[in-house]
Structures are given as C-alpha cells and as structure tokens.
Amino acid sequence: MFDKILIANRGEIACRVIRTARRMGVATVAVYSDADAQALHVTIADEAVHIGASPVGESYLVAERIIDAAKRTGAQAIHPGYGFLSENPGFVDEVEAAGLVFIGPSARAIRAMGLKDAAKRLMEKAGVPVVPGYHGEGQEIVILATKAREIGYPVLIKARAGGGGKGMRKVDHPDDFAEALAAARREAKAAFGDDRVLVEKYVEKPRHIEVQVFGDNHGNVVHLYERDCSAQRRHQKVIEEAPAPGMTAAMREAMTEAAVKAARAIDYSGAGTIEFIVDASDGLRPDRFWFMEMNTRLQVEHPVTEMITGVDLVEWQLRVASGERLPRMQDEISLSGHAFEARLYAEDAAKGFLPAIGTLHRLRFPDATAGEASLRIETGVREGDAISPFYDPMIAKLVTHAPTRDGALAALSEALSRTEIAGSVVNTAFLAALAADPDFAAGNVDTGMIGRRQDELTAASPVTAQHVAAAAVAAAGLDVRLDAADPWAALAGYAHFQPLAKTVSLAHDGEEIRARLTVAANGNAQVAVDGASVAVPASGGRFATARWPGHVTVFSGAASHTFAVHDPFANAEAAAAGGDALRAPMPGLVKLARAAAGDSVVKGQPLLVLEAMKMEHTIAAPHDGVIEEIVPEGAQVTDGAVLVRFREEG
Ligand code: ADP
Ligand code: ADP
Ligand code: MG
C-alpha cells in the first residue's frame, strides 16, 4: 500500500478520498487554487500545496503543477477524483513518466472509451449491445442526414467527445436536422474542441441504468450491481438509486454480464461504470438495453453502490492501484437494501436550473434518521464557505439507505426537510418535490419525466403570514435574544414590563412587506402583517430561521423563504456608491448589450447577456427608467460590478 497519495481534485470528492486514505493509514496531500485556500479539503488533508489561480485552467487542470506537487511532497500516487483530469489519458502518461502511480485505469483503457464513436465500434465487436445508430467516420451533412433517415426519427445527435450532457440534440423531424447538427457541433467545439458527432436512435421512454464494474491488474473483473439514474434534468443526474426499481433477475443478469464483458474487452483495471440506455416502454426487458458509454473513473453517485454492497470503492481503488487483487470476487459481493442519493446544488430550479453562487451563511444537515434507515452526507463545504463561480455548484450529496426502497425514500424526504441552507438559492425543495412525487415513489421514471413536469416540480411554495411573522421576529433580533438567559438585557433602551412595539420592513421577491411587532413582557410576540395577526411564542415559532447580512431565511419543510431586511444605512451606502445601478450577480463576460445609453427601458426588458459559469444569463431591467450608462459588449466584469446605471429621476 502507498504511504502517501496526492488528490488532484477539490470539494466533496477530495474530502471523500481523504477520509478513506486516513482510515487506511495513508497520508494525504491536497492541492488548491487561490479560491480554495481555506477550503475543507485543504484543512483535512495532512499537507496541502497551492497550485495556482482560481480558474481551473490555471490550477486543477494543469498537469505539470499537480505532478510537481506530488514529487515535492513525496506522494507515490495521484487520485484524480472525477471531472478535471480523471479521464485524460495524456495526464496518465505524464503521471507514469514521472514515476508515479495513477489511481485509475490505464491510459490505453481511457483512450479506448474516450470517444463515443470508437467506444461503440469496440463494444459492438466485443458483443455488447450498442444503441442503433451511425458511429462511423463520415461527417458530411448528407451522410449524417441520410443515416438519420435510415435509423428513423426521432434521433439523437451526440458529440463523440461529449460529457456532462453537452453537445447533444434530439431531432424529431428531418426538417430540423441541419439546424440541430449545427447547434450540437457548435456546443461540442466550444466544450471539447472536437465537433465530430454520431447519430443514434432516440430511445423512447428511456431509462438510464448503469453498472458499476471493478477490475484489477491480475485479470479479475467483477460488477457491483446497477444504479438507476433516470431522474435527470438536461441529461444530468438529479437523484440516483440502487438497485434499479423493477429490476428482474433476467435483466440484471444480462446487463451485468454485458458490463463485465465490456470491461474485459479493454483489460480494465480500477473503478468504472458502464452506462446503458434502456427502452422501458414495455417494462424492463433483457433485449431492450444498449451500451451508451463507459465512464473510466469513480462516479459521483458511487455512494449508493457502497451502501447496498458494503464495499468502500475508494479503498478498492487504492488497493488495486497499489497492485493488490480485488478484495472480493463476484460470489462474495451481495446486495442488501436500497439506497438513494440526492445532489444538492446552488441553483435556481424555477429558472431552468440556473447555477448560482453565494456564501453559505447557514449550512446544517440532520445528523441521523429515525428507525432502520441511515443517512450519509458527502460535502466539501462548511457553514460560512462560498460557492464560487469557478467550480461546480454542488453543495452536498444526501445519501440514505434502508432495508426497503420505501424506507430509503422516506429517509431522503425527511433528511431534505431537515436541511437548512441560506445564502444562496438551492434546489432542496425541488429534490423534495421529486422524492415525494407519486411516479417517482412508484419507480416509474424515465429520463424525460423532470423536463415534462418541470413547472409542477419547481413551483415555489407560497409564503404565508406565518413565514413573514417568523422572518420579522428574526429580523428584529428577538429570536436570538429570547434564547438568552435574560432576554430583556439585550433590549437596551426599552422599559421593562412595557410591551415593545417595532415595525420591520422586509422584501420578498421584490415585494415590500411591513410587519408590526408587539412583544409582551413574557416574550410572546404578536405580528401584524397585511391585516392578519400571528402569534409567535417566546419559545420560538414553528419555523427555524437564519439571519445573514441583509437577509433572513425562514425554513419551512424542504422549502425556504428568504426575505431582504431593510437597513436604511445599507441603502444610503449603496446610493453613495453609485445610485440606482444594476450589478453583476457573478463574474462573467458581457456577451451582448441590447440597450444603449439614453434608451428608455421598461421593467423586465432584457438589457444584456452575461456569460458566466458556462451559461448565458439574461439581465433584465429591474424597473422602468432611462439608461445613463451600460457596460460595453466584450467586457469582463467582476462580481458586483455595475452593469447598468439608471438616470436619476428629476
Ligand atoms: P456522473 O456521470 O459521474 O454523474 P457527469 O458525467 O455529470 O458525472 O460529470 C462528471 C462529474 O465531473 C460531474 O459531477 C461534474 O461535477 C464533474 N465535472 C464535469 N466537468 C467538470 C469540470 N470542468 N470541472 C470540474 N468538475 C467537472
Ligand atoms: P454524457 O457523456 O454527456 O453523459 P451520454 O451518452 O451518457 O452522454 O448520455 C447522457 C444522457 O442522455 C443519458 O443519461 C440519457 O438520459 C440521454 N441519452 C443518451 N443517449 C440516448 C438515446 N439514444 N436515447 C435517449 N436518450 C439518450
Ligand atoms: Mg453519460
């Protein structure tokens, strides 16, 4: 076994690898960028090396700096995590040339599976069923369009270098083929520097079922059962589970056998996943699943497999990379119970899952679940840490396990409703809505389900007078003070035993709310909002709340409602700093300016397009007005920079 390894990654996966290494007595070296100087993975590793600036291209993707850090610290091996350099065969070559061990498959195996077209040709030869389609060399539009017609619509155009759901377009009708092809190529070129595509039959009522495989350097390959990742938004996984609901013995045997065959075809060593697309229009049938791609790394959703098999996959990775045999053979691997994983992201589900940033002023997870279920939280951030624009906005993964699927799902719902996050918009309520959905609960999910029912699943839960009252009490600071030994000590300036009255100004979604608080000597508060009167007892209201700069967040089940708290001083400061201005919500590039100085604009009118976090964000006018000044196209702006300044009203 290695004495010391370097983890070439950040966030939750770096923390995950460090945890197992520590348990095995292996010392760990973290690497970090400027933005991550204080990150959790840095503080929990035995050593840490700074490798560059915050953008990934200047730190986590610079092979040379990572290898240099390993050599300087005496690490013998490098664990790549997922993403970043994990599936980069050139990196594996460089690691090995430096005399270090890459904790993962050979460069040759990664190359064989790196391009979807070549991988499909290889799998076809190995006798693994592949999605019907065209994965040849020809790239002329006439060839591709003819093939699409032969395959039969609908078809899916896919970037051969694709990943993360990018460079993919479903085409329903031949008339739309040319345009979809152009779009897929553009996206593929931008994301992967390779615009070659393949065309596949679009599988109807598709389910995404993948098989975890593991190989060693002694010719052994095993599988660790399947995971179902059909709950997807924009081709990206949301909630994963193992085993797959409705799986039959015949289907499982056919799928796991095909997966092991695929891994053997490339002498696979280490952890890998064979992704299959399944036509579930007629239940799960052994002749209706096809190889989609192989991910030659540890997968984000690996914990669900660990929960049902009791195997620590990271431990196996370290053992296999150091030359050991697989710790268990196929007949020693069994499946027990059911597990779910929900990916908690800083993103706005209601706005098309727009990624978000922010400081996590509140970050609390429940520490246990009731009954036979168990809960595992995988995270790389602590309360007070920021979700920055530089990296993936995942905050945590909530993983539950129970003897039954219903039990594990109930535990997931329960864990989501007891999670408190404030400081950024999060997808907790969306995950809870999905977990509570009758179709999801019945295991009746295909990859298009979330897209079809997006509005319903992302609908905001209404803000009630009770929520406002809780926010007002928290904004007035009473929640904190009432906990203190002498609640009245904090209320300096008010006479003892006199009812205290105060007006609190809040805003929710741009709407002004005034709440009138009256607090009796016993600490019970009465809050008048919009004519309604709500009692909030001194013992605290029904809802947990979090105060953070300029805001109060009220937690209500898995939903949360954030109110801006009016602070006249803060407003004066903002006015001094630039009056009525529209600021960048995150650092980015101004792609398009759709208005000019002197223009009269109306509320909601798109003013410019900001490209940030690999997505385009349309910035609209917050109110009617006349533009005094607007940033030019092509400008690179920092977080909070003024994008548009409005003319002062008379
Ligand atoms: P999986 O199939 O394991 O669920 P995806 O195919 O969605 O994962 O992407 C792989 C993982 O790698 C994702 O979780 C994503 O966060 C991460 N990832 C993808 N691209 C990048 C990147 N450019 N930088 C950092 N992490 C990335
Ligand atoms: P990526 O490398 O981006 O993960 P995949 O080939 O694994 O690309 O496909 C991602 C997702 O797209 C799948 O999980 C599935 O939801 C959908 N998909 C892929 N191929 C097909 C297909 N032929 N028919 C229907 N859906 C598909
Ligand atoms: Mg995939």
3D structure, described in words:
This protein is of the alpha+beta class. It has six domains: 4-103, Rossmann fold (3-Layer(aba) Sandwich), CATH 3.40.50.20; 106-131 and 205-336, D-amino Acid Aminotransferase, Chain A, domain 1; 133-201, ATP-grasp fold, A domain (Dna Ligase, domain 1); 338-460, 2-Layer Sandwich (D-amino Acid Aminotransferase, Chain A, domain 1); 465-570, Glycoprotein, Type 4 Pilin, CATH 3.30.700; 579-646, Beta Barrel (OB fold (Dihydrolipoamide Acetyltransferase, E2P)), CATH 2.40.50. It contains 19 helices and 38 strands. The strands form nine sheets. An eight-stranded antiparallel β-sheet has the order 14-13-10-11-12-15-22-20, sandwiched between helices. The radius of gyration is 27 Å and the shape is globular. Mean pLDDT is 91; it is low at 480-485. One adenosine-5'-diphosphate binds at residues 56, 82-84, 163-164, 236-237, 295, 299-301, 392.
By CATH, the topology of the largest domain is: D-amino Acid Aminotransferase, Chain A, domain 1
Q: Give the overall shape.
A: globular
The proportion of strand residues reads 25-35%
Alpha-carbon distance between the two ends? 75 Å
Derived from helix and strand composition plus strand pairing, the structural class reads alpha+beta
Strand order of the largest sheet: 14-13-10-11-12-15-22-20
Supply the number of helical segments. 19
